Amino acid sequence: MASEHPSIYEIHDDRFRYLTVGSAGLDQLYSGCRWAEGPVWLADQNCLLWSDIPNQRMLRYAPDGTVSVFRDNNNFVNGNTRDRQGRLVSCEHGGRRVIRTEPDGSITTIADRHDGKRLNSPNDVVVKSDGSIWFTDPTYGILSDYEGYRADPEQEGRNVYRVDGTTGVISVVVDDFLQPNGLAFSPDETRLYVADSAVSHDPTAPSIIRVFDVEDGVRLTNGRVFCHIDKGLPDGFRSMSPAMSGPAPATACTVSAQRAISSARS
Question: CATH number of the domain at 14-265, out of 3.40.50.300, 1.10.238.10, 2.120.10.30, 3.40.50.150?
Answer without folding.
Answer: 2.120.10.30
